[in-house]
Design a protein that fits this description.
two-stranded antiparallel sheet, 1 helix, 5 strands, 10% helix, 88 residues, mainly beta
Length: 88
């Protein structure tokens, strides 16, 4: 790697411009009881899935990528009934 500027501050600013960590901000779901870092504020939608005759409701949070229209970041959760956690 090269740096042609004699001013180390300019070199540092240039190198730090590649740090994308600052784009990711915490998002907290109070109802889902979780926090995750996302690059944009997500949109929440309630979803329903049917599987093996049972219906499950879950919540999806989706943040679209502004620079790549087909990319998005998704976090989802659902609350399982208490009997789901017990062994048969």
């Amino acid at each position: 790697m090269f740096a042609t500027s004699s001013d180390i501050t300019r070199v540092s600013q240039f190198m730090n411009s590649f740090n994308v960590e600052s784009l990711w901000q915490p998002f907290t779901s109070a109802t889902g009881k979780f926090t995750v870092k996302l690059p944009l504020a997500p949109i929440a939608t309630d979803e329903v899935t049917k599987y093996q005759g049972k219906t499950t409701q879950w919540t999806k949070f989706e943040a679209k990528n502004l620079y790549a229209k087909d990319d998005s970041y998704i976090v989802a959760y659902n609350d399982l009934p208490s009997q789901s956690a017990t062994k048969p």
